[in-house]
Structure to design on (65 residues):
């Protein structure tokens, strides 16, 4: 098991959860992530969640060293 991927996967998922909780509790003007001209404040949480899931899914694979 690749412990580095496991740890970073958990970290990414925790950060995604924290960002989403902040997005839901804070007013819309306080958190901003602009893509073009739109405020897409949900994008960082989704990206971190996807990266975390990928890291956790690939953590079980053995390394060929």
């Amino acid at each position: 098991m690749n412990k580095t991927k496991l740890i970073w996967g958990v970290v990414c998922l925790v950060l995604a959860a924290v960002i989403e909780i902040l997005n839901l509790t804070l007013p819309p003007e306080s958190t901003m992530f602009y893509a073009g001209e739109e405020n897409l404040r949900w994008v960082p949480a989704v990206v971190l969640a996807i990266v975390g899931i990928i890291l956790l899914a690939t953590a079980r694979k053995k390394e060929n060293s």
Notes: The chain has one domain: 3-58. Residues 3-58 form one domain.
